[in-house]
## 1
Amino acid sequence: MSTNLTDGDIEAILGILDGWPANRKLCWPALVETIRIHLGKSWSRQALDRHARIKDAFQLRKEGLKNKPAQNRGGFALDLQKALETIEHLEAENARLKNENRGLLEQFARWAYNAHSKGVSESILNQPLPRTGRVSTRT
């Protein structure tokens, strides 16, 4: 087993889910194996399921695949097949991002209500974050 999931690992796993082919059954064991092959790391279903973004993306993609029958693309030119795969990938990513955005908007509304009910003003909420004095390791 690998170490804890990093933000980069999560993004890579979300990309794998977004690009999951319609002609392949999506299940946790298949996802774990695909992650191992593509990322060279392995996590259990339980470890992946503990991360809300992965869990939500998995459920959303599984539902999307259930409602979309696999297409037979045998007669298409190779570049057209690639374009169709890219479109499917982008549609899945778009659906996932809309779902994540909806959750963040709900969270924001909840936070705004709670801040207002506790008398926290907008000017206090908009204050910049304090400097930490640490060097950023992100690129």
Note: The helical segments are 7-18, 28-39, 45-49, 52-66, 78-117, 122-125.
## 2
Amino acid sequence: MRFAAILDGTLGGGAQQAQALGGFLREGMAGDLAGETLIFFHEERDKKRLVELAPTRDVRLVKTTARRPECMAEILAAAARDEGISLFLTAGGSAGTELVTRLACRTGGAVLTDVLGVEAESGRLLCRKNVYSNHLVGRFELTSRPWCVSLDVSWRDARSTTVLEHQILSDTDDSLEVEPTPFEDLELVEPPSAGSLAESRFLVVAGVGAGDRGRLKRIEVAALRMGAGFGVSRPVAMNAWAAMDRLVGVSGTRTAPDLCIVVGASGAPALHWGIENAAFIVAINPDEQAPIAGNADAVVLDDGVEVIEALAEIIAKARGTE
């Protein structure tokens, strides 16, 4: 049976991903499995370095549009169909988990996240992962192929990978310059009245990780331009970068919007209490290991100010107020 270790070079952190995958291939896999590393990259300058990091001798390169997991899932689905790959592995974290989940949904395969080890046996895959708050190790059987697995984050601490003589099996370009998708079902809501965070249907909450006072002001302007309420985490309020009546969380307002976008906040329990009743939470944060990533419905790994201003621009055009 064949496997593909997926190294996503479009997000950064390639060395850490390769270390986790390499350690897992050496110590976490058992059975008759042979495979390759499938590297996604966006910039030509990154290609050589990513190949050097690959944890297998055989390597396939795919140049793709940056940060488009739906495009990557389509490419992997084709690899399962055309190359006969049964097992796909990603390093731990929200980006890897999203990719294998998309792939399983697209192909009808089985998905399991936070895996400690796998064993291929008689056409099936047996996996181990921590359960019951890491007090026990559970054993799971995956039957439907392809098997789509993300590793437990503990594999990030695996020892350095062995230097290999790599062989490039293919080098393709699937990148596309994608135009922004029109929001056909966009609903424009009226901006909330002053001081009504608890009543906001659309809310933007900024954390201290978004930057300094000037960057926080840019987020506030973008939020108001979109018709969203603007709130902040406790560290922002304590720095006097926003008024105390903007504080969301245990010490401030508890909200229940239809949509909450959290920009640059780590996601401390005090803040989560203030937004947990939101129907849908989007986290914009460059750190995929931030606690907010585990509590959000969607995560954007990028600079929060740039993303929120771009979103405000789209909505302003829809409103006709650009």
Note: Residues 304-319 form the longest helix (16 residues).
## 3
Amino acid sequence: MFEDYLTQLAISSKFKPFQFGTSIDKYVSEFPNLENKKIAIIGVPEGRKSGKNSSTNLAANEVRDELYKLVSNTFIQNHIVDLGNIKTGKTFEDTQVALKTVVAQLHTQNIVSIVIGGSTELSSALYESFEVQEKNTDITFISSSLPILDGELLDKICKHEPNFLHNLNALGFQGHYLPPRTLDVMENLGFGHVRLGALRNKIEEAEVLIRNTNLILFDIGVIKHSDAPANFYSNPIGIDSNMACQLAWYSGVSDTSNCFGIFETNPEFDERGLTSKLVAQILWYFIDGFAHRKHDHPKLHDEFLRYRCNLHNKQPDLLFHKSKRTNRWWMEIPHPRSQHNASKNVTIPCSYSDYQMAATGDLPDRYLNALQKLH
């Protein structure tokens, strides 16, 4: 089935025994065996709908050249496969269908997808790939822009049918690029968002939002030009390379993330391959995060400290869980339609500051946003 949608890789370079390129299975001649594989890499040589970034169709192979030079480890040697590139269709929509089909099939085999793409418009195909699971899907969109107004990318995802979108988080956007009403739309829908300045000051907040995410969409244009010049629309300000790798690690260590797509790398503008090197390192940190997953959730193990907070205004007590494995926090919310049935309670990721606020008797904003969704 996969061979119908993927092209073989042409690998000319030789790599050292300890490097990524030697350690993983690749679709070079015969299609690789997917048994015991945890992560599959897929390139999408599709530059249409990228505007003046059309040379993003070259990104996948350029990034691979840099990724394959990085140091491997035991996890990489045993659990990762490179499936080659999606066959480009006659139309952009044909390519999307092929990408959706391949990633959806990987979902059914419990294999996480890393997609090295062209345009961020391919994001909709990745979202639609989750339809096969028929369950709520959380998305984190990392970009300097926030395209959620009528007809824009995130708006189309929100309105797609069948709709399994549960939550959307936007990270790293820059306020001076947002048209009027953009943030109002996000807030009215109860979606999480952290603009660039706040993300710089407290990147740990991003981990809380990413922790329950299924699909991470990373626009390389969120990184400042000096660190990632390979983008026609790059900006003088943005997150730096260290932050980008930190966000990728958070994405990998999240027990729920099933797909990581990175877009808008344009080799035409890449000075000395700087951006391709950075994207390769971003992917390496995602993989490293995945290798350090702890299966850490109050429903998965009992290694938690529990704290009960009494709130003002006769609100029900709020129960917090702190993991002994990772020191991460969760907040348990009584379901408004089943307040006397603890089994119906909803447990969401939160931060220590949420607990501190509740300890004074006040309701954290994260609690109110989650309660709004339950209603």
Note: The mean pLDDT is 92.
## 4
Amino acid sequence: MIAFLAVILVAGLIMYAVVESGQGKKRRRKGRPASSGSYAGHLSRADMSTRWQTIMATSATGASGLKSSINEADKLLDHAMKQLGYPAAGTMGDRLKVAGKQFSNLDAVWRAHKLRNALAHEVGFDLVPSQAREALADFEQGLRDLGAL
């Protein structure tokens, strides 16, 4: 009986140590902030503008640059919406529904976001460069409408 209690006590101590050391928690990669997105923390308007310039420079590097730029533009718009207080829980689509009247052309922002989703989730999606440039212009206008640029 004493041996049984000793085993239970040791097992409890081991479980406690595992939980406290973080072994039972999801790990994040070293060097990355504990955040759900690439743009952790508050970004000033100047920071947003700098990131936007980087996105546009990347878009000029060919097809892979356009794809990357659309993804980054979508993330930047999403970050701006969260920063302005739109619900952080849920999806960007949820935030677009709530923020709809803030945009001069909500349909264009939705179209740009849907293009990003197609790039991210559809196997073999063929990006048309003119469509990508139009989406980037729509993301830019959305950021301007929110006062982020």
Note: The radius of gyration is 22 Å.
